[in-house]
Amino acid sequence: MKQVCIDDDFLEGDDIFSLRCGRYDQVQFKSLQFRAGPKKNIRIEDTIFSKCSVLNGICSIGRFVSLEDVSFIDLAVKEMEISAGALLNNVIISGAKTKFLTIKRLYKDTALHEMEASAVTGIVDVSGFSGALEIFNFPVDRLKLNVESHFVVDFKMLDSIPWEDLGIVKVGGYWYQSISRLAKRESPEAVFSIPKSGPALDEFNVLRREKFF
User: Fold this and answer.
1) Secondary structure of the chain: what % helix, strand, coil (to 5)?
2) Pair 48, 99 in one domain
3) What span, in angstroms and rounded, lies between the C-alpha atoms of 183 and 172?
């Protein structure tokens, strides 16, 4: 697999680094981490990453990084982390090669960053993504999900569900602990992938059968 340094493909302007019409197919990136700053805006447009990999196994997109009409198809990484303060406009993430995808408030992100990001109205399409997924601090109405693979929870569920009556433990229970994390992340809603097996799936089936999910 050909190894590529994506930094070489960016054009540098007065206060912006930009990449347009990139087509990457079956290449390995030395790094795929984008960090914008006060004097460094990063914008990626009309770009496709198809069946690529990253040397360190991580793809990271920080706040204020702008992605417009960008697709990640079967990106082979252990983790893809995206800041809830990134500017995401018509972004597609699909396939099963990414083991874990998260969109959330990253280190030093603030609600202000997310307010600015929320001015972007394009959809983030994860309906074709089949890896493990967690999304916090991001408008659910801007997500295209797969109802067979992804489930939306809100913080009110924590008190409205009779966990013990349903035989679901709180301490160590997957769904109780997952929903508890919304308060820590100051996120009214969140999206989780539906587990494919094990106790977490058993809990999910009970909650769905009893119409709490």
Assistant:
1) 20, 40, 40
2) yes
3) 17
Q: Does one domain contain both 130 and 162?
A: no
Domain containing 159: what range?
A: 150-213
> pLDDT grade, residue 119 (50/70/90)?
low
Provide the phi-psi class of 38: left if phi over 0, else alpha when psi is between -120 and 50, else beta. alpha
Final residue in a domain of this structure, among 146, 176, 192: 146
Q: What letter represents residue 112's amino acid? A: L
Ordered DSSP codes for 49-86: EES-EETTSEEEE-TT-EEEEEEEES-B-SEEEEETTS
Instruction: Count how many domains the chain has.
Output: 2
Per-residue DSSP letters for 15-27?
SEEEEES-EEESE
Q: Which helix (H) or strand (E) element contains residue 111?
A: helix 111-117
- The per-residue pLDDT for range 174-209, each reduced to its tens digit, is 999 999 999 888 888 999 999 999 999 999 999 999
Report which DSSP code applies to 157. Answer: H
C-alpha 163/C-alpha 112 separation (Å) is 35
